Amino acid sequence: MKSIIPYPVSYLVSKLIFTIAFFRTPLKVYGRENIPKGSVVICSNHAHGNDPFYIVYSFPFWDKIRIMAKEEIRHMPVVGRLLDFLGIPIWVKRGQSDLGAMKLAMKTLKKGDLVLLPFLEKSVDGYTPGWGAYSEYAVVGDAGAYVEQGMGPGTREWNESYLAQTVIGPGDKTDPVGAAMIATFREVLSAIRRFGFRANESVLIFGAGPVGLCFTRFCKLLGMKTVITTDLSDAKVEEAGRMGADYALNSGNCDIEQEVRRLCPEGVDNVVDAVGINALLNQAMGLIKYNGKVCGYGISPKLGMELDWSRAPYNWNLHFVQWPSKKEEGEAHAQVMAWINVGVLDPMDFISHTFSFEQILDAFALVERREPGTKKIVITF
């Protein structure tokens, strides 16, 4: 049962009752500094009925402890009702496979699930976080279970990234290689939502790398009227056309401002820098229409610049999305998977090479060579 009162209150009230009832055997704690940080499973001796309480009260009240207790105690007139009210136990029916008790500890994940975005939240015992990159093992959090047990948003146990650690279901039309693109898809879609792009608007996208191609494809799927994508590479310009750009331009072979004004005489509603070159933000000022938006996506290598809006319309907007929140990314998952499952979005269109882990140095060498046609590179284990 989920407690109707916060855990710290349950802890302090129950500890007070316990102290009064068992004052002859006061609690003394040794070695508290050895308690590990993070989530743990405690397996202890159980020689006396009070043992679980001594364990709970050995921890500070901000470390939420749940006791797995036999179902029979729940039906005791006073003790059972009190424990239910405090929400401390997970009741277990002994002698049978109690799936109900296990579901309290695991709401949305099960063994064998293909989970997106696993990682280590912080350095633990010499292991350093790397957002799951090239990891043999990683950690995921069951968001449903955390919320169910009162450890959701606002508590010290919670991490927002749990909301983005979603499962690729058996009916989803992608494999682990293609699934490597889904985090990027969700980040770009959540950025589009944050920018406030709307159907029937126009957009100019600087850059036709994997991110720029995602913007191109998604803007068309979302019903934007005119999508213009630019790049310096003929191969990438061609790819932008295949992704649905209404106009794909090589900015090295034409005057972009002249071409955009020819296509959209009043300017475009939105300009996106999908490259991370600050100079493009200044260039965008002469391309947007009245009340238009200049949008910067991602983290630029240079975190400062002189912004010149002398050629901008009288009113305009500048909007940066350097890193979407994991809550927003998780909320974008359903739309991304719907596009994939109906066949209008193919992750493999954004992946150019796949290497085994033993070939990882070859993969990095390919990145360094910047060969035409190189998009996302996936390392398999």
Structure description:
This protein is an alpha/beta fold. The chain folds into three domains: 7-104, no CATH class; 106-168, no CATH class; 182-327, NAD(P)-binding Rossmann-like Domain (Rossmann fold), CATH 3.40.50.720. The protein is 34% helix and 16% strand. It has 15 helices and twelve strands. It has helices at 7-21, 51-58, 71-74, 79-86, 99-105, 143-148, 176-179, 182-195, 210-221, 234-242, 256-263, 279-285, 326-331, 333-342, 360-369; strands at 67-70, 89-92, 114-115, 167-168, 202-206, 226-231, 247-250, 268-273, 288-297, 316-321, 351-356, 376-380. Strands 7-6-5-8-9-10 form a six-stranded parallel beta sheet, with helices on both faces. The protein has a two-stranded parallel sheet with strand order 1-2. Helix 8 packs across helix 9. It is elongated.
CATH architecture field of the largest domain: 3-Layer(aba) Sandwich
How much helical structure, as a percent, in the residues? 25-40%
Question: How much of the sequence is in beta strands?
Answer: 15-25%
Largest sheet: 6 strands, parallel
Fourth-level CATH superfamily of the largest domain: NAD(P)-binding Rossmann-like Domain
CATH class of the largest domain: Alpha Beta
Distance between the termini: 41 Å
Low-confidence stretches: none
Mean pLDDT: 85
Question: How many domain modules?
Answer: 3
According to CATH, the fold-level topology of the largest domain is Rossmann fold
The oligomerization state is: single chain
Total number of beta strands: 12
Anisotropy-based shape = elongated
Radius of gyration (Å) = 27 Å
Per DSSP, the total helix count is 15
Please identify the structural class as seen in this structure.
Answer: alpha/beta
- What is the ordering of alpha helices and beta strands? HHEHHEHEHEHHEHEHEHEHEEHHEHE
Q: Kindly report the spatial arrangement of strands forming the biggest sheet.
A: 7-6-5-8-9-10
